[in-house]
Amino acid sequence: MTSNASTTSVGSTAIGAHKRNSDDVGWEYAVIPDKSNMDRLKCTLCGKVFGGGIYRMKQHIAHVTGNVSSCPKSTKDDQLKCLNYLNEGKLKKKAKKVHIEDLRVEARQELHDSVDEVENSLGSKAPNVIGLMDNFTNIINPEEVVKAGKGKNIDLNNIVRKERILAVHKFISRWAYESAIPFHAFERDSFKMMLEVIGQFGTGLPCPTRYALSDPLLKLEVERTKNLLKKNEKEWKEDGCSIMTDAWSDRKRRSIMNLCVNSKMGTVFYLQKNVPVKHIQANTYMSIGALPRFKKILDQAKKLTIFIYAHHKTLARMRSYTNKREIIRPGVTRFASAFLTLQSLSEKKEQLRHMFSSNEWEECKFSGKPKGIASYKTVTSVQFWSGVTQCLKVFSPLVKVLRMVDADWKPSMGFVYGEIKVAKEEIIKSLGGNEKHYKPIIDIINTKMKGRLDSTLHLTSYLLNPYYHYNDA
């Protein structure tokens, strides 16, 4: 019988048994029979239940004696698979131990180099600058330890060490909890090196000031990072590299672009810019929004929203009529924000009309103010709402292009030229084919595209893209 067959036959009887979501090979042979005791596992081959976790289960399958009995039903393949996994784990632990020791040596050397530099500049040894932390820690009374152990043979050094470590860890954890430090930060090599140099320094280490952290120490770290990049820069010149970009928006809706450099030595962050690629399209659309027929509508919409949001009473009244839905919808660019706000106003046209024609509005102190009167005229104007509809018809095709360029899920190079071409056709159609109306818009788009989005690369991408030249028919 193979191991798979054994797993099926035994495991199928384990009603209510559970497995952990892990890629550890041990879980191919183990289930948790009782969720109240997650450390006790059941072998799916022989049915034996024991504690000790998944590590002991692998020993059980691999016939590694000493901690647990060997599984009588595991095949040679099962044994070899788990044994290789156990040996691999040992190698990883050993490598990790070596890595940590290397960090300690590096940290000690860096600290000693700094001290030597200071001593050389002074021309003499600096007194009491550095020493082992063990020389400054409190000594635990050995008699109390022996008494607590009730006469058993106890490794006093080990107990003292554990108590000292616990005492230090309490202070570290307290600082982490108070400062909301994420726990994964303690796994960083820089943190381990920090502990090492603090221990090497000894007592009396002054805390860096806020000024030191924000200015001189920051500059030193920036300089250190630049020096570390020199090896990469040399390799870039000799063997070449690739520039990678990642555009995104921060919490304040500002467009950011990260520039990274990839080479044989790996990928490194190099520069950050707040000017995204899509600024060309956004700039084009804002020029269209500056045309008189659209600017008038945009200005009216802007004044209306500013008036409503400027006073808490008008804002509360608006929210009561729109079921707490906002009319201002911020976008990544100024043009996108204008479009989204117009779209939101159009969706809430009837609610806003009811608001400004209600008895509550007539009783409101702002209804007789100049801005209140202007807002009332805007909301009740047929021409305004007709203009909003016209703006949305013209802007909508352009917003599709903007969203496509901003999207991360689809490469846009092969679609930019084609989508702008489609957008121009939709604009002409939305304006009834009236050249007098659509020509100024098309001229702006063509002017902004020239030399930027009509290059040989863009045209070739468009011509080779089957999306625009073939259809399902």
From TrEMBL:
Q: Where is the DUF659 domain?
A: 208-277
The lineage's top-level taxon is Eukaryota
One of the Pfam families matching this protein, by short name: DUF659
In Swiss-Prot or TrEMBL terms, this protein is called DUF659 domain-containing protein
This chain's source organism reads: Lactuca virosa
